[in-house]
Amino acid sequence: MKGVNEEDRTEGSPVGRRVVLGMLGLGAAGVAVGASVQDGVSRALAPVGPIGDVLPAAGGFRYYSVTGRVKRRSAATHRVTVGGLVDKPQAFGMADLARFPQTVLERDFQCVTGWRVPDVEWVGVVLADLLDAVGVSPKARAVQFTSFDGVYTESLTLEQARRRDVLVATQMEGKPVTHDHGGPTRLYVAPMYGYKSLKWLKGIKLTEELIPGYWEGLGYDQHAWVGKSNGRDDVPT
Fold first, then answer.
1. Dihedral, CA of residue 28, residue 199, residue 237 and residue 235, to nearest 10
2. pLDDT class for 16, splitting at 50, 70, 90?
3. 126 forms bridges with which residues in the sheet?
4. Spatial CB neighbours of 137, under 8 Å, sequence gap ≥ 6
5. Which of 91, 169, 219, 231 is most buried, judging by how many CB atoms fall within 10 Å of its CB?
6. Structure confidence by residue, pLDDT tens digits, 70-94
7. Whose CA is closest to 25, among 111, 109, 112, 110?
8. C-alpha 118 chain-centroid distance
9. What are the residue boundaries of the structural domains of the chain, listed by start?
């Protein structure tokens, strides 16, 4: 991981629901106010020792799960279903996803609770390409994402979902996305805070209305742009 020491990562140490909910107020403030608050939250968390089952070390990824331990899925049998308001509902295995054009994005990964990992390289299928493959109904206005943990959900407007910096990610830092990082497949929404990049991606459903995700139901912002308020600048083509 570029810029991150091995000992800074807490991969495999889940952040329990109680601890994450305890950070909710700080996270919501960060979405509303912006990067300066995020930096302050990061500094506040860095010197603190273990809290429950999270170790907020300065710098590395944290492992978050709203359900505790999540059962692993084999890449050989894993499927991502795409359905709802589409012409041709399909289930895509890893080999199917590999046949699509692959896009590489290298961006900072910013968590709403304050920590950031710089220059993370992601590889995967642009979500818009997957949507084009199944044919989106004119009635569709939004996209809902479900996790195979059985609880975590997220959503984007159809316009947001069609950005070229939104991926169904299959690789991270040159290797398959690990289970702890949300593999075999996870959503990666580059211009938004990390909770929008749903882990353990199982299902993609086109809907008529925007359905708030798990964290939005607990007070987080639906449109969680990092930095720029409208989120429309610097869209890669």
1. 0
2. very low
3. 167
4. 85, 86, 87, 206
5. 169
6. 999 999 999 999 999 999 999 999 9
7. 112
8. 16
9. 6-218
Give the per-residue pLDDT at 228. 55
**Residue closest to 120 by CA, chosen among 42, 188, 208:** 188
Task: Give dist(CA 149, CA 203) in Å, integer.
Answer: 11
| CA torsion through residues 23, 67, 108, 164, sign | negative
Distance (Å, whole) CA 78 – CA 182:
13
Q: 6-218 belongs to which CATH class?
A: alpha beta
- Computed over its alpha carbons, how large is the radius of gyration of the chain? 17
Positive or negative torsion for Cα 76, 77, 78, 79: positive
Q: Could you count the other beta carbons within 10 Å of the beta carbon of residue 159?
A: 11
Q: How confident is the model at residue 200 (pLDDT cuts 50, 70, 90)?
A: very high
pLDDT in tens, 17-60: 443 444 444 444 444 444 443 444 333 333 322 222 333 433 48
Q: Output the six-digit token pair for 37.
A: 């608050």
Which tokens in the block code for residue 165? 């910096």
Which among 160, 145, 165, 154 is positioned nearest to 84, based on CA atoms? Answer: 145
Provide the whole-model pTM: 0.76
Tokens of 172: 């991270």
| Cα–Cα separations (whole angstroms), residue 86 to 137, 226, 228 | 5, 30, 32
